[in-house]
Write a structure and sequence with these properties.
The structure is a single chain. The protein contains 8 helices and 13 strands. The chain has 319 residues and is an alpha+beta fold. It folds into 2 domains: 2-82, no CATH class; 97-310, Endonuclease/exonuclease/phosphatase (Deoxyribonuclease I, Chain A, 4-Layer Sandwich). Strands 3-4-2-1-13-12 form a 6-stranded mixed beta sheet, with no helix packed on it.
Length: 319
């Protein structure tokens, strides 16, 4: 009896939250609920298992509500797995480059470990958020890499210096922090941009999305690479709205990068990351060869490692 009642309550909570999250199509406030879609799905499954141990009304109500919650949560998550993530290429394709996106966390006390791992990975493009001057100096000293945005907390590191740094002009308060620069990487001019947007609970998130689209629209997008900590999961209707209008293709798919645990006042390691909130976008001139998650490195985020290769030109037709 107790397990059945507990299952019905858990299923009801999961179903209620998942159904309300669909209101995120029309409300920024309700869209906040979408980020927890995997939790609702797990809650519905657990609710069904517990409800199955009950009898009578608890069992019937629990199983019905679990089905509603599971379907509603799955419907939130399905577009991420059904969308087109862009062209692909085999590993080792000509012109292949490695991009690492990493929110290193401003209070990270494992800077030596971070830099040692980055040096071993040896990315062509490193996008960093919440970078401190100390970490910036350590990366440069240990690797010799060049930095764009050295006075910002968002930085771009590369082997060679940038060719130009032409920041798009915006009127008024942009409510967005970003760094962009142009490089000669991967066989031609490459525009690189890094940003760190606010949490979905902040009022700035919607204006930041609009500004981001305006900034990207003023830059060459065919071979562009954009990465950052977006604090936004793919289940969010706001994320899907922005993705559809950026003119770039998000190359990560449902790869959770937060939390790791053991940061701030939270002393325990998180068993698994839950939220895919770090993203890498690339223009249609790039094909994806691999996307993977890096290790714990003293931050509350995991690094995201994306390998890209130029899209192969179409084969010449026989004469």
């Amino acid at each position: 009896m107790f397990l059945g009642a507990l299952g019905a309550m858990l299923a009801a909570a999961s179903a209620g939250a998942a159904v309300m999250a669909h209101g995120g199509r029309f409300s920024a406030g309700l869209d906040i609920l979408t980020h927890w879609a995997p939790v609702y799905l797990v809650g519905a499954i657990l609710g069904a298992l517990l409800a199955a141990c009950g009898v009578g009304p608890n069992r019937r109500a629990g199983l019905t509500l679990a089905a509603v919650g599971g379907l509603a949560a799955a419907a939130l998550m399905a577009p991420e797995f059904l969308r087109d993530a862009g062209p692909t290429a085999p590993p080792g394709a000509p012109g292949e480059i490695k991009v690492i996106q990493f929110n290193v966390w401003r209070d990270n006390r494992h800077r030596e470990q971070v830099v040692a791992w980055l040096k071993a990975e040896n990315p062509d493009v490193l996008l960093v958020e919440e970078a401190s001057p100390g970490l910036r100096n350590l990366i440069v000293a240990r690797t010799g890499w060049r930095v764009a945005g050295a006075q910002s907390s968002d930085m771009i590191f590369t082997h060679a210096p940038y060719l130009a740094m032409q920041r798009p002009r915006l009127s008024g308060d942009s409510r967005l922090t970003w760094v962009n620069a142009t490089y000669d990487i991967g066989g031609g001019p490459l525009e690189v941009m890094v940003t760190n947007t606010g949490w979905p609970t902040t009022l700035d998130l919607v204006p930041q999305g609009k500004v981001l689209r305006r900034v990207v629209s003023q830059l060459p997008r065919e071979r562009m690479i954009l990465g950052g900590d977006f604090n936004s999961t793919p289940w969010s209707f706001r994320r899907q709205h922005d993705d559809a209008r950026l003119g770039l293709i998000r190359r990560d798919r449902a790869l959770a990068t937060w939390p790791t645990g053991r940061t701030g006042l939270w002393p325990w390691a998180a068993p698994i990351p839950i939220f895919p909130i770090d993203h890498v976008y690339a223009g249609p001139g790039w094909a994806t060869t691999s996307v993977r998650r890096g290790p714990r490195l003293g931050s509350d985020h995991y690094p995201l490692i994306v390998t890209l290769a130029p899209v192969a030109p179409p084969a010449a037709s026989p004469r």
